[in-house]
Amino acid sequence: MNYSDKLNNLIPGGAHTYSRGDDQYPENAPQILVKGKGCYVWDDQNNKYLDYGMALRANIIGYANDEIDEAAYLGAKQGNNLTRASMIELKAAELITSIIPGADMVKFAKNGSNVVSAAIKLARAYTGRNYVARCAEHPFFSFDDWFIGDTPMKKGVPEEVSKLTLSFKYNNIESVQKLFDEHPNEISCFILQPAESVEPLGCENCNCGEICESEDNFLHKVKKLCKENGALFILDEMITGFRWHLSGAQKKYNVIADLVTFGKAMSNGYSVAALTGRRDIMNLGSIKEDGAERVFLISTTHGAEMNGLAAFIKTVELYKKHNIVEHIWDYGKRLMEGMTQIAKDLDISENFKMVGVSCSPNYLTFDKKGDSSLALRTLFSQEMIKNGVLIPWVSLSYSHGEKELEITLEATRKSLEVFKNALNEGVEKYLVGGVIKPVFRKYN
Predict the structure, then answer these.
(1) Residue 352 belongs to some domain of the structure
(2) 84: helix, coil or strand?
(3) Whole-structure pTM over 0.70, yes or no?
(4) How many domains does the chain have?
(5) Residue 209 binned pLDDT confidence (cut-offs 50, 70, 90)
(6) Mapping DSSP to helix (H, G, I), strand (E, B) and coil, where does residue 274 land?
(7) How far is Cα of residue 153 from the mean position of the Cα atoms in its chain?
(8) Where does the pLDDT of residue 206 fall: very low under 50, low under 70, confident under 90, or very high at 90 and above?
């Protein structure tokens, strides 16, 4: 059955996240998935794949974890969504503010876009300024106009809204200073992810490699400039949170932001996101200060459902019990070393590269001229699928173990042998179907 046609006929884009769409995968990718367990998924024909997508990085412990599912079930059995705040809601708020540096208060929601946009609203309310500066290299912050208007997909966004978002470069403090110089006393905040998937965090006085805690690092410099210029420093930890460190990448990089957002891995696949930060900023959304002008922050019927928050509480418990963050760093290091060595053995190390930090690697593909190649990336993904590995990107989980590492490296060797042939003979000879496309493009 052609599930792709049915999905696209009923759902714009064929899925509820564009990164799950047909244009993000090679033609031989499974059109529809039926179930997942651990780090494996099955399609409608019962074909089994070792998965590195892990639900867009949301499943950090593994699909269908019995302990987390049981906790979520018990939360739901208590009513799931009550007339007033629930006891689980209070416990979840106490937990996240206890483990995240600088988190005095929290607002929960169901997805990352909502809490990130709420952070932007708070920044504008707190500073009285309209401009927002976002990191150009970081691919996604929100589905709301303030961000989408600064991408090639501007249709539907008023031009006057688009003009209020500015861009700066990661690891380039001059680009940050330039925006402050061009818009004095006009920028409400700078928002970025703590880490960039390709290059390590930059600093001036050390060869920092993967992690740099120096106060010369880029994050510290951005925070300093924000403070000097009256703007808020916001970190989006949708990807880095609960992966770099249980207390977030800001703990790893020794920096505390004014506001921080979390989601994805915090509840192992259940729908929970969080906005945290300084009390004086977060409190703008409160109702207890008589006479204060109100900020309508996040108001969501389902934002504090007990099944998701119970899953979050249990997920944190398992993080601590099993040293999950340490496992992911170790597995990622060995995966990167193994895949890099295979590329070296095949004499294509300039064409296939593993980059980024060990807890969240990325693979890059380049043609014989040294130019980035989506066609070769599609081919690698295609061949990995042939060998039973679904790897649109590299999201690691606690369920990835020794057996999975062996499977992945064997599949990598077979796939890169085809990759090398394609380099020499032309990728079109080996690629079946179209080339994957960027999510943010103006036209289909």
Answers:
(1) yes
(2) coil
(3) yes
(4) 2
(5) very low
(6) strand
(7) 20
(8) very low
